[in-house]
Fold:
Amino acid sequence: MQQILITGAAGFIGFHLSRRLCREGYQVVGIDNLNDYYAVSLKKDRLAILQQGDNFSFQQVDLQDREGVDRLFKNNSFDYVVNLAAQAGVRYSLENPHAYTASNVTGFLNVLEGCRHASVKHLVYASSSSVYGANTKMPFSVHHNVDHPVSLYAASKKANELMAHSYSHLYDIPTTGLRFFTVYGPYGRPDMALFLFTKAILENRPIDVYNNGEMRRDFTYIDDIVEGIARLIPNVAKPNPDWSGQQPDAGTSYAPYRIYNIGNNQPVKLLDFIETIEDCLGKKAQKNLMPLQDGDVLATYADVDDLMRDVDFSPNTSLSEGVQQFVDWYREYYRIE
Structure:
């Protein structure tokens, strides 16, 4: 039985991925610091489900704790590591910038060091579609340069990609970065739009709709995200033999390093997204139309050709199906008739 470390296992994506990998027969060690960025009770409820299985174990570890991370790697023999722990949220990064360098930069460095000394077969880590920043050429491709982030959160995720490349180059550690595009679904984060909108509509409160609803997002259902990660874990990153320093390809390298987009490849207008929520709830929203917020981008749209080519997968859950799954979970979880 192969052993895999999932950081951020009590988080939204970490929970779903851990459950999937346990079903596939991995011995999953999950860690999380259980911070209070959002309700700790939701994180503990996710963990309670995972701990019902025999091949999941949990340790409360903060990635910023260098000695704690060192002990974790020394006391285990991880075949693979999936780093999903991070300080999330674009808007929160405007108010609490230091939380992002501490968690997303220092914490990720400790993971890289752990993988280096433990000779891990493959490090897969969460990046974000936010790294595309001021780019406007659509769809976003991993082969485009991403040098103009518009939030510190995005900059910290770009930093992760650069740090991973340096370790792939220096220590021959295979690393794969995954740029997630607006993930949603059951047990989702309370600070994300679908959760906020659903809660407000059911409570007869108005919702804040930024840029007058003219933004477009590549909403990606959690099961599609998890399927992509699960296929990429054993697909160990390899050097690109055609890579050239004269015309450097941003998505690959002469080192064992890869970047992939995981998005639905079907951007949706925010007002259409809200209409889908209304249809699933059977209730109309009251809308506060507001200007674009600092740190937001107008559109996201993922080119997933590399994912299709390398692991024969592309996300395909329809928005109406995915939103209905979330609404059904929300009503059950919060006991709403």
